[in-house]
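Render Actin-like ATPase domain-containing protein in 3D.
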Amino acid sequence: MNAALGGDNPDTFEAEERVVIALDFGTTFSGIAYCFPNQHNSKVATVVNWPGIDGESHNAPKIPTLINYNGKNFAWGAAVNPIADNIVGVKLLLDPSQEKPLYLPTSNIKNDLKKLPKAPVMVAADFIGAIYRHALQEISAQVPRSYMDLCQKQFVLSVPAVWSDAAKNSTLQAAKIAGLFPVTMIKEPEAAALHTLHDLGFTLHVGDAFIICDAGGGTVDLISYEVEATSPRLKLKELVPGSGGMAGSLGLNKRFEEAVKNLVGEEEFFRIKKAKAWFRAATQFDREIKPAFRGKSSEEYFVNFPMADFDDDPANGLDSNCWRMTGDDVKDIFAPLITDILRLINEQANEVKIKRPDRGVTGIFLVGGFGSSQYLKACVERAQPGIQVLQPSDAWSAIAKGAALSKLPDTALVESTKATKHYGVEAYSIYDEILDYGENTTTRRDGTIRVLTFTWYIGIGDDLCRDQVIKFPFYRSLDSDFAPDDLIFQDVLYESKDKTSPRHKSKGDAIKLNCTVKADLRGVDRSQFRQKRDIYGKTYIDVQYDLVVKLESALMTFSCEVNGKTLGSVEAKYRY
């Protein structure tokens, strides 16, 4: 599988010619875009031919993120029987820690995980591998085979900005299991921003600021950018920490389901749930009513449940297996999600205005499947008067296209981002009678009194430059007769969303373990370590090293340095 994807042939990575393949792995729909960066006037294209597509969805830039295991048969995307017992929304199971809004029907994450035939990462890997292999076939059909064989394959995977580092790492692991290499990651709203600016061709000015609202199927991500330079290339920086939540359009489908259940009763609803009657109605809501709704009470939609054999209920609009939905009925379904998105946009806008009180927000861009809703656009315009609200013509494929654009040399560059959490470590420091009063202490070999405290190397709102490197210094004291395995150290990286970074674990309300990092220094020359004597005259070894964190677009990578040189190896394990 790896060889077919150009995954483990080292010679391909020395090639001058490249093809960039970007995947928008979505909760409800997924798509792929690609480009050849070395070609003159290289343009980004999308894969539009998919297995199982019918006349209605021909030339579709996205396919349903549906998966079905039936014995040895594996079906995916549009080739899946839509009324079968399919796996839906596996992407959300990669980040079960995401807080679900109260307005969505409750679900049991543990039960959802138990229903899967294998771990979510493996299910995601199966889907990602299938969609990429098909994409390579489609891309290869567009260029001479000899040229395609010369090209180095570079893969880009987009992930929600609001996801935990553990979930981003899970997505990366799924891609690697699928055979993708080398693969990089980009935050979905960042990719959307690159495409929007490239596609709309605005005359931007230094100092302009805009909010990208990426409203997709599962999540809504928001990031605000300021234009730092327009020549020789467009350069952007994040203005305030990104935000988001689980207000994607999948919530509309779930709320429609609840509305039907309330209309006909639970018993009748579960009777038709696996039948074509429900599939037809759900499809009609998803493909016709959602995108067509404009927010007017006078609007009417007739939802059909063929052969459902419902009892008529004229008072509630149910007659002959047809529900007459009024504009108010549809508005009730949209209402809490719209409210949540408007809140998120308003919070970003207010923070931008605080950051730059004399200039404020230049514009708001709505991208993603839900972002193409005209009703959402009208609601945002009413909530943010005086700020232009724009939707790219192909908002649905903006993320995949933007992810591919991120690898073009002359496209816009996001030079810095804002940290959304504190990141740091817990270690012993010298006891401070005021700051550390009441905390447990210990006496070290050198006679000093120490106390466990947090050192936060990254703070909420910090500017994080592209590919910035941050060093977390550590040291260990070992007996002079230490064994080789004593040079394997486990260190914990913590995160916190507390507004003020806490000094002690007892004082923090939102301190979480981010990942455990194992540093293996067994291969390091012993002369790199210092020999010391304790207060009793006994010799010991002082091992000092730096855990080096490199901040990439959507993920942190780790290495280890001893005396300024990269030595040893590092393995990070995330807590899911």
